[in-house]
Amino acid sequence: MKVQHYECTAAEPAEDIPGLSVRWVISEEDGAPNFAMRVFDVASGAASPFHQHPWEHEVFILQGKGAVKGATGETPFEAGYVVYVKPDEQHQFVNKGDDILRFICLIPHLKK
């Protein structure tokens, strides 16, 4: 069992994108057999890359306001919202507020 404050995991720049950091708070290194839990911080005006991949995202917005951009446009969200991104769906998380946008993102481990 692992119990710790999420800030005990070091924040790392996410894909060398200014204003975007990620903490891998639960991962295979912890013995989690199926999923990884990450906590993202997105600075005001920053965004994740617009991309897609063959795995799903399950997201819970902890703090801030933003939008998730897809192939057909943007959908706004704020703290308390959930977002499900299907496998191979194009997506981008954009901070639309003045403060940090913080969210939890669960993804399956990539099979090697």
Sum up the structure in keywords.
46% strand, mainly beta, 112 residues, globular, 6-stranded antiparallel beta sheet, 0% helix, single chain, 3-stranded antiparallel beta sheet
Descriptive report:
The protein is mainly beta. 0% of the residues lie in helices and 46% in strands. The chain has no helices and 9 strands. The strands form 2 sheets. A 6-stranded antiparallel sheet has the order 1-2-3-9-4-7, with no helix packed on it. The protein has a 3-stranded antiparallel sheet with strand order 6-5-8, with no helix packed on it. A hairpin with a 2-residue loop joins β5 and β6 (73-78). The chain is globular and about 40 Å long. The protein starts with 11 loop residues before the first strand and ends with a strand.
Label the structural class: mainly beta
H/E element order: EEEEEEEEE
Give the tally of β-strands: 9
Contiguous helical run count: 0
Gyration radius (Cα, Å) is: 14 Å
Proportion of helical residues: under 10%
> Which stretches are low in confidence, meaning pLDDT under 50 for 5 or more residues running?
none
Which percent range describes the beta-strand content?
Answer: over 45%
- Termini separation (Å)? 25 Å
Largest sheet properties: 6 strands, antiparallel
- Mean pLDDT across residues: 93
How do the strands of the widest beta sheet line up side by side?
Answer: 1-2-3-9-4-7
Outline type = globular
